[in-house]
Every structure is written in structure tokens, then in C-alpha cells.
Design goal:
about 450 residues; alpha+beta; Helix Hairpins; Adenine-n6-DNA-methyltransferase TaqI, Chain A, domain 2; about 20% strand; elongated
């Protein structure tokens, strides 16, 4: 859909703005809004942190605004006291102030829905009579490349206050701001609804995929196969010719030291074992010296591995190439010829994951561990090898189909988000004349 343009434009003199409508006023934002910095009261004075009642927006709240879908903030993770504010550079800012994150998570913005203060990680704009907070918010969302231009720092990014003071935009009249705000609210809501539909579709595909896998590894592919009670509560009935046995009958626990030449394999809760070695920077975090590799466990193709602390979340994987895994992983080697990937898929089903949780030991979820002595007594149902291969082939074909369908939705989301970004940028730089559009929508 194409939108009308203003009849006349002029050079704004600002790179990110380009040409703007002739009657718009390019200027530093500080000419239309008062810039305020946040602060943190001294932690060395406990009395500053007693009777805390004032909302205080900090980096721990950035999650609320990271996706730029939540425009107005009413609550914060932390509060600060009035005494703390009185003895720091921070101050209570009025409802309607626009805050912009300038440290670590740079460039995210929101409007204060109540009076609140912020930490020094935010630049805060108290809008004057010529500027609507929502217009400034939309302008900030269009300034992503401008923020990148000013970012400094190696450990974490920061935009320093002199650069914040230099930020510029083009200011239309209040009636035009109101029309632009209404236009963007309406059009982005349409796009956001389409994105939400695609995300729901992806979630439904994931649920359908899991249901297909769960049925295949617990009931088989033949809907007419005679069934029998497995004797395992979480499995229920299984095909009559499948064997029910303990994990310890199928696998043995091994702990072979790593070898320098072997790659350290990546193991994911969601994707199992990857045959790709860690990226160099990730390797640096996990293996600080070459002799540390001896602390890792050697694995062979068809080994089953699991993270003791993540088994209750489905953290199982089948090894596809010789390599090493972290000592946090149990390595279970098959005692006989079998399709380990079948067992992996079985152990990733929701009922099995709940069973792993029951067998894990620990005080809290974060400390739960599934030890081999517990895991080896878990019972599973296993089809003949040829049938297990057929099930895995069926899962592979189904997986490819689901990946393709999900990829279509992911691409649709990317295109919609690109359109959203372009639409916001075009509107706040005056490339769209929204005045008539607002009237047409109202009519």
C-alpha cells in the first residue's frame, strides 16, 4: 500500500532524517524537551534504601520495553526512598516523561505511566508544550542507526550524555503529531496482529511436531498393531511386540578422558548434540587452557548423553561424531546394537521429562540432578531395530516438513517487522502525509 507525500520538502541537514516537510522544524530534541539524567542513591547509606515507595526504573526493567510493544510503564522491579532521592542526583520525574536506555541495552524507550525515577542508565525527556511524548517515542524507535553511530565501549555499549544532548529530530505541529500518533498506533497494531498470528502458527507447529513424535515413539507407526500394557505409568499401552526394559540394560555409564585433538561438542536442551564445535569465543569461555580438555568426557557416535542438571527439561542428545562433552554430562554407551536416537526422542516426550524430574534429586529446580544410579532404573519400551529405524525416518521426514512450514512463518515475521520499522521511519521523518489519512480513517 502506498501513502501520500507532503507537497513540498526541504533538506533537514540531519543525515537520518533526510528531506522533511517544508514546514517541519529540524532541531535538537532538547529544544522541545528537558533532558534529565537518572541516578542511583548510595548503597553505603542503608537509610536511603528503607521505606522505598518511589518507582525506580533500572536495567532490570528493560525486558518490559525490549520488544518495543509496551509503550507505557506503570511499575518497576525496584523502588527507591524519598530520602534516597533527596540525597542523590536522581529526581522524581513526572508521568509522561520519555525514558531512553543508554547503557548495555541501548536504544529502548518507553513513557512513564506514573511519576518515577530512573537509574543513570537512562536519559529522560520531560516533553514541553510543543511535543507529544508518543511522538518522541515513535521518533526514538526510528533512530536505531543513529544510536548505533553514537555507541561506545568494549565490554558493554553506552551512549554518553553529550551525544544524547546532540540527538536531533524534526518537529511537526501538535495537530500533525496527533495525526501521526493515531496513524502509527493503528497501522503498527495491524502489523503486530499479523506477527502474533504467525507466532501462534509456529507454536502450533511445535505442538503438532511434539505430538507426532510422542505418538511415534510410544505407539509406533502401525495403527492396527496389537497393544499391551507396558507396566510403565507414563507410557501406558505399547505395541505388543516391543520390549520393556531398564535403561541400565540398554546402556552402560562410561567416563573416558578427552583427547586434545577431539572437538568439544555443543549440547542443547532443545536440539540435542550438535556435530559443530563451539565457536571460538565460546570455546574460550568453556576451556581456558588446552590441558583442561582432559576434564571433558570422550564420546562416540551413537552414545546417549544428558546434562545431569537439565535432564528434567529434556536435555538428552545422541552423539553423531567422535568428540568430547562437558563433565557435567553423563555418557551412556549402548550395550548392544540399537538406535540411540529412538531412546533420545522417547526421553524428550513431555511424560518422560516429568518422569526424569521425579527421578532427579535436589532441593530446588535449579539444583535438581539426574544421577546415573537413578537414570539406569528408568524403564522404556523399545521396538525391533528395523522398526526403530522406520520410526526415526518418519520423524526425519516430518521434521523437515515442519521446519519448512516454520521457516515460511519466520520469514513472514521478518518481512512484517521490516515493514513496521520502515513505516515508523517514514512517518516520523515526514515521508508520509498522515493528515488526510487520519480524516479518511475517521470518516
Amino acid at each position: 500500500m502506498s501513502f501520500p507525500r507532503y507537497p513540498r520538502y526541504k533538506d533537514s541537514g540531519v543525515e537520518w532524517l533526510g528531506e522533511v516537510p517544508e514546514h517541519w522544524l529540524p532541531m535538537p530534541i532538547r529544544y522541545a524537551a528537558k533532558l534529565e539524567s537518572g541516578h542511583t542513591p548510595s548503597r553505603s547509606h542503608p537509610e536511603y534504601w528503607e521505606n522505598c515507595t518511589v518507582p525506580w526504573f533500572t536495567l532490570s526493567d528493560v525486558w518490559q520495553i525490549r520488544e518495543e510493544r509496551r509503550q507505557v510503564i506503570h511499575d518497576t522491579a525496584e523502588k527507591v526512598s524519598e530520602l534516597g532521592l533527596a540525597n542523590s542526583s536522581a529526581r522524581l520525574l513526572p508521568k509522561g516523561t520519555v525514558m531512553l536506555s543508554r547503557t548495555a541495552s541501548v536504544g529502548f524507550s518507553a513513557i512513564m505511566g506514573v511519576d518515577m525515577a530512573t537509574s543513570q542508565d537512562f536519559a529522560n525527556w520531560v516533553c514541553g508544550s510543543r511535543l507529544r511524548p508518543s511522538f518522541l517515542l515513535w521518533a526514538f524507535q526510528a533512530m536505531e542507526h543513529e544510536f548505533r553511530r553514537f555507541m561506545m565501549g568494549s565490554t558493554h555499549n553506552t551512549i554518553y550524555m553529550p551525544d544524547i544532548q546532540a540527538l536531533r529530530f524534526a518537529l511537526p505541529s501538535i495537530p500533525e503529531q496527533d495525526a501521526l500518533i493515531a496513524f502509527l498506533d493503528r497501522e503498527t497494531a495491524k502489523i503486530d496482529a499479523l506477527v502474533a498470528e504467525q507466532r501462534r502458527l509456529i507454536e502450533l507447529l511445535k505442538e503438532k511436531r511434539q505430538a507426532v513424535i510422542s505418538h511415534a515413539v510410544t505407539k509406533g507407526l502401525n495403527p492396527h498393531a496389537p497393544m499391551k500394557p507396558s507396566g510403565i505409568e507414563w507410557l501406558g499401552d505399547v505395541p505388543g511386540h516391543w520390549e520393556v526394559m531398564r535403561v541400565g540394560t540398554l546402556f552402560r555409564d562410561v567416563a573416558e578422558p578427552g583427547i586434545d585433538d577431539l572437538p568439544i561438542l555443543s549440547v542443547s536442551i532443545h536440539d540435542g548434540v550438535s556435530d559443530k564445535e563451539f565457536a571460538e569465543e565460546e570455546m574460550d569461555r568453556k576451556v581456558t587452557r588446552s590441558d583442561d580438555r582432559t576434564k571433558y568426557n570422550r564420546v562416540l557416535p551413537n552414545d546417549l548423553v544428558y546434562n545431569m542438571m537439565r535432564a528434567w527439561q529434556g536435555g538428552f542428545g545422541t552423539v553423531t561424531v567422535e568428540g568430547m562433552v562437558s563433565p557435567a554430562y553423563i555418557v551412556a554407551r549402548p550395550r548392544r546394537l540399537l538406535e540411540t536416537a529412538f531412546i533420545e526422542n522417547l526421553l524428550r516426550t513431555p511424560p518422560a521429562i516429568e518422569q526424569m524430574r521425579r527421578h532427579s534429586r535436589g532441593v530446588t529446580d535449579f539444583r535438581l540432578r539426574l544421577y546415573w544410579d537413578e537414570f539406569k532404573n528408568v524403564r522404556v519400551a523399545l521396538p525391533p531395530q528395523a522398526e526403530a529405524k522406520a520410526v526415526l525416518a518418519h520423524i526425519s521426514v516430518m521434521d523437515e516438513s515442519f521446519r519448512n512450514m516454520s521457516a515460511v512463518s519466520e520469514r513472514a515475521i521478518d518481512l512484517l517487522q521490516e515493514r513496521r520499522t520502515a513505516l515508523i521511519s517514514a512517518a516520523v521523518t515526514g515521508k508520509i502525509d498522515v493528515r488526510g489519512l487520519a480524516l479518511a480513517e475517521a470518516g
